[in-house]
Amino acid sequence: QDRVEQPSGEMTANKGDPVTLHCNYSTSATNVYIYWYKQLPNRSPTFMLSVFSFGKGTTVDEFKDRFFPTLNSKSTTVQLMIKNLHVSDSAVYYCALQPTVT
Ligand SMILES: *[C@@H]1O[C@H](CO)[C@@H](O)[C@H](O)[C@H]1NC(C)=O
């Protein structure tokens, strides 16, 4: 069964700092498809970027400069590094795992 988890909970950091968000997953899929979403208060989550274990994901333009995903299929972990925090980065971030179709 496919599962994904975000252990970090709430994080606080200063403007200008870097911060890294974490996710871990378990899946039977060999190619893992991970998607990150950003949710501002009273809004729906919006797609930011995708990262795959094989092949290149995509990143929405506004996140290209400062948001860097990594996927480690050995440790089954995903990280999203945000460089040079802006106040507008304050939000809820979700990582999602595309389910395996069998
Ligand atoms: C994520 O990692 C934690 C700590 O190692 C582990 O207990 C948990 O089962 C993992 N979650 C998934 C979805 O694999």
UniProtKB/TrEMBL annotation:
Annotated signal sequence range: none
Superkingdom as given in the UniProt entry: Eukaryota
UniProt keywords, alphabetically: Adaptive immunity, Immunity, Immunoglobulin domain, Receptor, Signal, T cell receptor
Any Gene Ontology biological process: adaptive immune response
Keyword Hydrolase: no
Keyword Signal: yes
Residue ranges constituting the Ig-like domain according to the UniProt record: 2-102
PROSITE patterns: IG_LIKE
Pfam families: V-set
Transmembrane annotation, as ranges: none
GO cellular component terms attached to this protein's record: T cell receptor complex
Protein name (Swiss-Prot/TrEMBL): Ig-like domain-containing protein
Originating species: Cyprinus carpio carpio
UniProt lineage: Eukaryota, Metazoa, Chordata, Craniata, Vertebrata
